[in-house]
Amino acid sequence: MAADKPILLGIDLGTTNTCVAYVRNKVARVVPSDKGSLILPSVVAVSDKGDLLVGNVAKDQMVVNPRNTIYGAKRLIGRQYNSKVVQDIKHYFSYEIVEGPKGEAAVVLAGKVYSLPQISAFVLQHCKRVAEATLGSEINEAIISVPAYYNDNQRNAVKEAGKLAGFNVKRIVNEPTAAALAYGLNRGFDHKVLVYDLGGGTFDVSVLQLHGNVMEVICTGGDTFLGGVDFDNRIIDFVLEEFRNETKIDLTQSPIAMQRIKNAAEAAKIDLSLLSNVVIELPYVTDRKGKPVDLRIPLSRERVNTLVMDLVERSFQLVEKVLGEKNLNRNEIQEVLLVGGQTRMPLVQGKAHQFFGKPPRKGVHPDESVALGAALLAESMQEIDSVTLVDALSMPIGFAVPGGRFRKVIEKNTQIPAQKSFRLPPTKSGQGLELDIFQGDSDRIIDNEYLGTLKFPAEAAGQRINFILDEECLLRVTIEGNSGEVREVTLATRDTPEALKAAWQEEAERRRLAAERAAPEAQPKGIFASIRKVFGGE
Q1: Which residues are the active-site residues?
Q2: Of the candidates 474, 494, 445, 449, the residue with the CA atom closest to the CA atom of residue 171
């Protein structure tokens, strides 16, 4: 009976807020959080008494206990601690970010080191408990959405968070695809839609062809470091500078003052979506010679627009790039869906109208559509006539070749699931082979994300290697033996990406110097001419 079907949750695990939805009697609904709100702050904290707090209660203690309040975990999950992106944004967080046991970014909470999947699992566990209490039954299965522009490491980390929270994660789905599903399912559309998803921490843009209940991603792109937090940071920097100019006091060394300013900046930004002017007022933000110093800074919508204009323009440059990759004209897009809380900003809505020459679609809820779409997908997976999603790879996957270059195996916008194959080259003097696997848009590995290393014995030369992407955009690698047997190869991570890239650069420089000394005709030919063990010489 239909009533006996297990409930599957659709979860939009956001940078700022998390939203959970379910389907009952074919209608998708959002599960209210513990305070009746439809969204739950993606915040985890430990109180002074040692209690673990999640959601609103955790956010409430941000100001009084900023060192033990973790927010924005989605920006760090699945990233290496030494990566440029983590090092660049570390100073914006009031809590301590450290290197985990495998070189990954981790956080310190009440003196204990936690992985980012563990932190996200606390949020997901809370969602699970609230949903079970609300719906009156045990819930063990979920679909979790991720930014389309997440790489393989980040997708696996989110899946791990779901498992730690007690979920059987049936599928990882891209956020723009889920939003399009919420918009188009069972509505008989036959047109192209563009999903412009500007959330708290990430930006995604995807173009989908809707044909009934077949949803095909044509092209996708984005930036996992462009979102509402960056808009907040522009306001924070402005407030700090204005205060410094007025008082000659630097507040950046006070975690409590910084947290108060962060909260005030976010609130002012939200107010300025409706009002033209606000005043940021923080009494007793610090003291000087024992006397309290207040902060009072007027802020206009016009000034904020000036502060963030380049961020908005950057998002539309990415839109332009994504359309260009498939030679699509703006007028071929029938509907523009704005998703993510930051799209409430009048500047963003105005730019979208100006860019496409028509207003974006109303009636798509910026906070709820991704979770609702994920829930609809979960429901559909239990049906015989389920929806068909054809997603696409957001960033190429390949391996490093000498000179620090990147050889792509699976190209960007390849529809998934997909499989691409190549043969391992012969090796010199019976040595084993190592292939360092990367994902990213650059032709140079130093700018891309290191996924791991494939190690092969010398006898594997000439055998076929298969790169397999499943419907969740997760990578598997298999090798086909000469007698036809197929076995899976595990990616090993042996060094931090920075150590690895440094070694590749050193190798590239050594080869360049050798090339200058050698005659041109003596240089190796072909892509595979010099894939060999980088460490330990020739």
Answers
A1: 12, 74, 175, 197
A2: 474
Mean pLDDT value across residues 337-353: 97
Average pLDDT over residues 306-325: 97
67 lies in the same domain as 205: yes
Number of domains in the chain: 3
Determine contact, residues 440/447, Cβ cutoff 8 Å. Answer: yes
Give yes or no: residues 30 and 93 share one domain: yes
Residue 533 has pLDDT above 50, yes or no: no
Confidence of residue 537 (pLDDT cuts 50, 70, 90): very low
Query: What is the spatial distance between Cα 32 and Cα 400, in angstroms, rounded to a whole number?
Result: 47
Domain that holds residue 452: 397-522
The helix/strand count (H/E) of the chain reads as 11, 28
pLDDT in tens, 463-479: 899 999 999 999 999 99
pTM of the model: 0.87
Burial grade of 490 (CB within 10 A; 0-12, 13-18, 19 or more)? exposed
Q: How far apart are CA 49 and CA 204, in angstroms?
A: 40
Query: Does 66 map to a domain?
Result: yes
The CA–CA distances, whole Å, from 509 to 378, 504, 505 equal: 51, 9, 6
User: In this structure, are residues 42 and 69 in contact, taking their beta carbons and an 8 Å threshold?
Assistant: no
394 Cα distance to chain centroid: 11
Rounded CA separation 366/368 (Å): 6
**Does residue 157 share a domain with residue 91?**
yes
Average pLDDT over residues 295-310: 98
In a domain, 530, yes or no: no
Say yes or no: 71 and 187 in one domain.
yes
Q: In whole angstroms, what is the distance from residue 223 CA to residue 225 CA?
A: 5
Which of these three, 374, 392, 410, is where a domain ends? 392
Is residue 527 over pLDDT 50?
A: no
Is 531 within the bounds of a domain?
no
The verdict on residue 538 lying in a domain is no
Residue 459, token pair as written in the block: 């006898």
**151 and 167 share one domain:** yes
Find out whether 43 and 71 touch, Cβ atoms under 8 Å. Answer: yes
- Is the same domain home to 414 and 343? no
The phi and psi torsions of 54 (rounded to 5 degrees) equal: -135, 140
